[in-house]
Amino acid sequence: MDGMFTDDSSAIEITTGGNAAPRYLTTENSPRLLLVDDEPRLLSSLCALLKDRGYQMLTAACGAETIELLNKLQFDLVLLDLRLPDIGGHEIMDFINAKGIDTKVIVLSGDTGIEAAIGALKRGAYDYLRKPYTREELLKTIDNALQQRRLESENRSIASRLESSEKLYRYLVDSSPDIIYTLDQEGRFTFVNDRVQQLLGYGPKDLVGRHYSVLVHDEDIERARYVFNERRVGERASRNVELRLKSLTGSDQERTFDNTLMTISFNSMGMYSLGKEVVDRKFFGTYGVARDISDRKRAEELISYQAYHDILTDLPNRILFKDRLGLAVIQARRNTSELAVMFVDLDRFKLVNDTLGHVKGDELLQQVAERLRNCLRRGDTLARIGGDEFTVVLPELRDRQDAEIIADKFLDSLRQPFTLDSKEVHISASIGIAVYPSDGESIDELLRHADVAMYNVKAQGKNAHSFYESSMLDASYQKVALEQSLRRALEQGELEMYYQPQVDVLTGEIVGAEGLMRWNHPERGLLTAGEFLPFAEENGLMVPISDWMLGALCRDLLQWNAAGGESIQLSLNISPHYLEHGGFYDKICGTLTRFGVSPSQIEIEITENVCIRNPQYAIEQLNKLCQLGVSIAIDDFGTGYSSLSYLHRFPVHTVKIDQSFVKEIQRENGHFPVILAIISIASGLGLKLVAEGVETKVQAHYLEKSGCKTMQGFLYYKPLSHTQFLELLREKRAISA
Asked: Could you tell me which residues carry 4-aspartylphosphate (predicted)?
């Protein structure tokens, strides 16, 4: 781009040839403007308008030229047209912002749309003028923009000067929100700043000459003497002493001040005979700074309170409860008396929380806390330690009956319905009680044993209380030991798959088998799934156990196929937890691919309860399996809580009649409507039917006559180990050959 700057005070016209608009340059110290427009005549007109106003002016007719100039030179102001042939005005402003270029931008645009103006102002434009604009409007806008830029420059200069002198004035600047004062030797104010009036309502003139005691709270007068008569200097001077000061502002709240004091020393010099010099340090008064810390003290008190209390129920939390329990134990030990610790866990709270939502669950907890609090004696402590769990310490028991009375009051108070959003909600509680010193002498022992007693109540049916007994702990330890053993069983290969054949009663052929897990326990022998899978569910082991089971089944299927069992379909019972959280579909796909097993040989058994947990997700997962070629069976049909509408929605191929219904069949000429209804439903929906738990010929004949042709149970085969099942297949193959 052609152009140059000169020291000549007069404006110089610079042209680039052709139809380009002239560029005007003036002295270096005048404001530098960049005029951007793709219309040469408009650009020339703009230059002519601003020619005699003492500006340095450069012009650009396109976006690329504008950006080049912005990269090279510093401009005080850019007059920018939005519509340029190559790069739009908005993009140029984005470039200015991205590069952090220090300049003002006035947009001159013929665009009448509001979006263009909004876009420019959002990008930091100083102003937006629509063409055609008046000469006065343009000149005033330019003057205002340059004036603002000058003011900003001056402010930055002032800020820079203030920063350079910051060390000198740091103490006064930092102390400006505080009361600054000086006292004489008698404790009378000789100076106090205006802050005292803002905080306490006293004017500085009202205090000068008066004793400091007019401000100090009566209870803090003695401590104030050490603050306002401080004679020490340096590190030994009084610091961070808190005093309460009186206020004339009409507020009843006391204000607390943190006082930092200094002593001012004056040196006196006397005239003595030659060679003699005397230095006398004479105490003149006290200088101090008083900082208002009332809000901080209240915040500290609130934080301290919240640190020891449950915010939702306003009850003591675990920390405060343990502290009070510790004091109660010390007192009981000193007085050789008893105390009780209760562990209260609400029954059915999770159901309410999941049904009505967490907000209503919190409201329920608040109502529960209030009811329980009203059942206590003076001196008892009720605490919430998390979730729906509460603990209680009952000091100074006369006998165990005192604790039993309180526990009964708790249960009675919870029997009355709770009202949430005009709905009546019923809950109960399981309460475990441990007594000091017979059930433990430490805080942790008492809490642990009360917890064990509470879980014993849960196991016995809930809505009751129980005192701790040592036998409960033995049972608890057995559960823990079983869990640990189960984890080791996975690692050490103690789990094994058994298979119960499914028989076509018309042909006698084995058409399928249900996989059943067994545990070869090193001490307790062979355990069925019902003896250890509940513990796996409770302790988060269902996913790894199900992973193992899936791999074991596919390995066994390979050997069955080699023995002539290609037509056999294997049923695999899947936990709802595995279906929802185990990466279910991907794992089945990966395992089938890894072992080369056909999906048509696998049937996944689910219970009806899957329908009420997360039906939509379950349907999606099962549909994907069906597309893969895997069959789906409903296990224990008729014992769950699902509706028939879910049976229509789920991609089900097989219905299994639960053995509890089959056991009811005691005679062939009897009438068993549930069995007939299930068979009718399966027939109407075109589903396969399998009866479980068939043990007698009477049951088999009734089921066959009613339309069920596939059965499994002890009448035909007991569950067989993999080796036994493989041998059975080989025998069947030899017979058919």
From this structure: 81
Say what percent of the chain tops pLDDT 90.
Answer: 33
Integer Cα distance of 229 and 221 in angstroms? 12
Residue type at 672 in one-letter notation: F
Q: Per-residue pLDDT tens for 311-334?
A: 899 999 999 999 999 999 999 999
Residue 698 to residues 323, 636, 666, 712, Cα–Cα distance (Å)? 68, 21, 7, 14
Handedness of CA 223, 224, 230, 233 (dihedral sign): positive
Looking at per-residue confidence, does 18 or 197 come out higher?
Answer: 197
Classify burial at 52, counting beta carbons within 10 Å of its beta carbon; exposed 0-12, middle 13-18, buried 19 or more. Answer: exposed
CATH of range 12-163; options 3.40.50.2300, 1.10.3810.10, 3.40.50.300, 3.20.20.30 = 3.40.50.2300
366 closest CA partner among 388, 338, 394: 388
Which pair of tokens denotes residue 274?
Answer: 């030659």
Q: Which of 249-263, 265-279, 407-421 has the lowest mean pLDDT?
A: 265-279
Question: Spelled out in words, what is the top-level CATH class assigned to the domain 170-267+280-299?
Answer: alpha beta
Q: Which of 62, 64, 55 is nearest to 143 (CA)?
A: 55
C-alpha distance across the termini of the chain, in Å = 99
Mean pLDDT for the stretch of residues 414-420: 91
Q: Which architecture characterizes domain 309-468 according to CATH?
A: 2-Layer Sandwich (3.30)
Q: Does residue 431 contact residue 373 with C-beta atoms inside 8 Å?
A: no
Query: Which residues does 300 contact at the CB level (< 8 Å), separation at least 6?
Result: none
Question: Which pLDDT does position 370 carry in this prediction?
Answer: 95
User: How far is it, in rounded angstroms, from Cα 387 to Cα 389?
Assistant: 6
Cis bond upstream, residue 22 (ω within 30): no
Rounded Cα–Cα distance for residues 503 and 511 (Å) = 6
Please state the CATH superfamily assignment of the domain spanning residues 489-736 in this structure: EAL domain (3.20.20.450)
CA 489 to mean position of chain CA atoms = 35
Q: How far apart are CA 672 and CA 164, in angstroms?
A: 99
Instruction: Report the pLDDT value the prediction gives residue 342, as an integer from 0 to 100.
Output: 95
Res. 56: pLDDT tops 80: yes
What pTM was computed for the model?
0.45
